[in-house]
Amino acid sequence: MPLTSRTRSASLTLQPGHGDRPDPASGHGGKLDFDGAKPAGTTEAKLRDAEGADSLIVTSFGKFERRERWTILKNVLAISFAFSCLFTAFTGMGNLQSSINSEGGVGNAGMATIYVALIVSCLFLPSLVINRLTCKWAIVVCTFLYSLYLLAQFYPRLYTIIPGAIILGISAAPMWSAKCTYLTQVSGPWALLIRHGDWSSARPSRWIVKFFGVFFLFFQTGQIWGNLISFLVLTPEEQATVSPSDEGLAICGIAYCPGSEEAFNNTNLQRPPKHQINTLVGVYLALGVAASVLLAVLVDSLGKYGENDRDTSASGTRPLTLLLATMMHMKKPYQLLIIPLTMWSGFEQAFLMADFTKAFVSCAWGIHRVGLVLIVYGITDSICSFSFGFIIKRVGRVPLFVVAAALNYAAIATFIHWAPGPDETHVFFLLAAGWGMADAVWQTQINALYGVIFPDTAEAAFSNYRLWESLGYAAAFIYSDLLCVTRKVDLLITVLTIGMLGYFAIELMERRKAKGDMKVTKE
Question: pTM of this prediction?
Answer without folding.
Answer: 0.79
